[in-house]
Amino acid sequence: MKLASGFFLVILALSGPSVWAQTAATPAKSTSETVETFYLTNISQQNDATEIVTAIRNLLPANAKVFFVFSQNALIVQTTPDQLVLAHKLLSDLDRPKKTYRLIYTITEMDDGKRVGTQHVSLVVVSGQRTTLKQGSKVPIATGSYNPGSSTAQTQFTYIDIGLNLDASLDESVNGVRLRSKVEQSGIAEQTTIADVREPVIRQTVLEGTSILTPGKPLVLGSLDIPGTTRHLDVEVVMEVIR
């Protein structure tokens, strides 16, 4: 009896803790779904909203429902409460204000080593977006003529833009602020006669490329010779942080 009692007590001592561990299991999380609406405050274009919606859909479970209302900049999410906490954190990280910069372009025209003209153009560009500027005139170009049955021929015209065109976009990178820009300047050089019609000859200079900018430090984008003349154009840009 003593041996049997002792053996019985040992069995209880060994089996007791494992039975307790099973009965003290962690309760399962609630699987009930909740709907919550998040209003994005820093969305300025549809592409920004699309990127955020794609990120949320990819990181939440497949059964989560995600809708975006563009007219309200509102993101509607239907999922479990714990996944809504994750969605809230992701939106806090993604929906952040973008920096605004000022770009000052300086276009200097040189003739045989002498400065003959300088033009300054200022653009405000938001990171991740594009800003364009056009300054100049529209020049008529004859495209054809016809006689509708009368003695007077009628001429058809189209119009082309001449002057200065600027196209700039900025985005932030690990090395600084990356600028993608296109500078196009055109003007009337002379006129020529084609089929008894006087047509203008358009002189055009285009500079396009990608550069890394440092705030407050001027950068020469390029220097271009004007064909048939002793002149050339120097294009410089400097960037300032607005906010």
Quick synopsis:
The chain is α+β, with helices and mostly antiparallel strands and 243 residues long. Helix content is 21%, strand content 55%. Mean pLDDT is 80; it is low at 1-29.
Layout of helices and strands:
Layout: H1 2-23, E1 34-39, H2 46-59, E2 65-69, E3 74-79, H3 81-94, E4 100-111, E5 114-126, E6 130-146, E7 154-173, E8 176-194, E9 197-213, E10 219-225, E11 231-241
Antiparallel strand pairs: 1-3, 2-3, 4-5, 4-11, 6-7, 7-8, 8-9, 10-11
Q: Your description of this structure?
A:
This protein is of the alpha+beta class and 243 residues long. It is built from 3 helices and 11 strands. The protein has helices at residues 2-23, 46-59, 81-94, and strands at 34-39, 65-69, 74-79, 100-111, 114-126, 130-146, 154-173, 176-194, 197-213, 219-225, 231-241. The longest helix is centred in the first third of the chain and has 22 residues, at 2-23.
State the main characteristics.
single chain; alpha+beta; four-stranded antiparallel β-sheet; disordered N terminus
